[in-house]
C-alpha cells in the first residue's frame, strides 16, 4: 500500500493551480506514493454563499488530510514574510494526528531576515522578531523536526512552477530514501 501525501501550500491560489497539483502528484507516483492535492476534492460550491463556500472547502480539505499518511508543505513565504496561514494550520493538523510533516521553501533565508526591522530585533509593530535560525516560525519548523521530516531550503522564484517542482522532487526523493531505511 503506497503512502498518501497531502500536498499543502498556497499553490491552490495560482492561475496554474490544477496543473501544478497534477505535476506534484505525478512526481509522487514516480516514487510509489499517492499525492492528494486540495483541489482534488472537487467541492460543489454552487448555490452557496461565500462563507458557506469557505466552510465547504475547509471540510473537504480536512477529509482529504484525514485520508493521508503525511504532509509535504510548500512553506515559501506567501503575501508576507511567512508561509500561508492555511498551510500552517494544515501542518499543525497533521502533526496533531501524529503524522510526519515535510516541507520546502523557495526562500532559503531565516524568517528573521525576511521581517522588516526598523530596530534590530523588533518589527514595525514593535514586536520581538524571533531569531532561532529557522526558515519560519519555530512551531512550524519544530513540527517538521519532531516528526522526523525534513525542510528543504532552496533559492527560487515562487512565480516559476519549475522551481516549485524541482524543490518538491528533492523532498520526495528524500522521503523515498527515508522509507528504505
Describe the structure.
There is one protein chain. The chain has helices at residues 17-30, 50-67, 85-96, 111-114, 138-147, 161-179; strands at 4-8, 34-36, 70-74, 101-105, 151-153. With 181 residues, it is of the alpha/beta class. The two termini are 17 Å apart. The longest helix is centred in the last third of the chain and has 19 residues, at 161-179. 33% of the residues are buried. Strands 2-1-3-4-5 form a five-stranded parallel β-sheet, with helices on both faces. Helix 1 (17-30) packs parallel to helix 6 (161-179). It has a single domain (4-109, 136-179), classed as Rossmann fold (3-Layer(aba) Sandwich), CATH 3.40.50.450.
Identify the notable features of this structure and list them briefly.
181 residues, alpha/beta, Rossmann fold, five-stranded parallel β-sheet, 6 helices, globular
Summarize the structure.
This protein is α/β, with parallel strands linked by helices.
Number of helices: 6
Task: Give the strand order, joined by hyphens, for the main sheet.
Answer: 2-1-3-4-5
Spatial extent as radius of gyration = 17 Å
Q: How far apart are the termini? A: 17 Å
Q: What is the number of E strands? A: 5
What is the strand content? Answer: 5-15%
Order of helices and strands: EHEHEHEHHEH
Topology:
Layout: E1 4-8, H1 17-30, E2 34-36, H2 50-67, E3 70-74, H3 85-96, E4 101-105, H4 111-114, H5 138-147, E5 151-153, H6 161-179
Helix pairs in contact: 1-6, 3-5
